[in-house]
Amino acid sequence: MILRYKQKFVDKVTARIKIHTIRRDLDNVAVAGEELEMICDPDKGDPFEFYNDYCRHTQDIRILYSSMYQYPYVSIDGKSLMRSQIEDLVTNEGFDGVDQFFKFFDKNYDGKIIHWTDYEYLSS
Question: Which of 12, 33, 70, 113 is most buried as measured by Cβ atoms within 10 A of its Cβ?
């Protein structure tokens, strides 16, 4: 599976600050054991592969916007996240803050967290 990134995420992936990616994966390509090729699409120059790993596991993620909530509702595998858990998700996704994360994910969103580490949210 090819995962494309902007230049700003390259150092965060290689430094293991960004430990997963959130994608729609409508064709269910991301499964445990699938090779992950991470490609940088710079604003100038040719794309290049900067990291290679494999999918350890995935988790379902949902982000919902509603006037009932001060912040968007976020759930992983059907379980609601508290504010501190959302902050962990944001950091692990490579964003500099919650506001930046919700600026990027600015609409209702259903997708997968594709993990290339053994980290898991809300594990029992």
Answer: 113
**pTM recorded for the entire structure:** 0.93
Cβ burial 45-69 (10 Å sphere, 16+ → b, else e):
eeeeebbeeebbbbbebbbeeeeee
Rounded Cα gap, residues 64 and 73, in angstroms: 5
Specify the 3-state DSSP secondary structure of 18: coil
Residue 11: its H or E element: helix 7-14
Banded model confidence at residue 124, pLDDT cuts 50, 70, 90: low
pLDDT at residue 41, rounded to an integer:
87
Side chain identity, residue 104: F
4 in Cβ contact with 21 (< 8 Å): no
* pLDDT higher than 90, residue 68: no
Find out whether 22 and 5 touch, Cβ atoms under 8 Å: no
Which residues on neighbouring strands pair with residue 48, listed in sequence order? Answer: 40
The CA distance from 116 to 111, in Å, is 16
The two structure tokens encoding residue 90: 């944001």
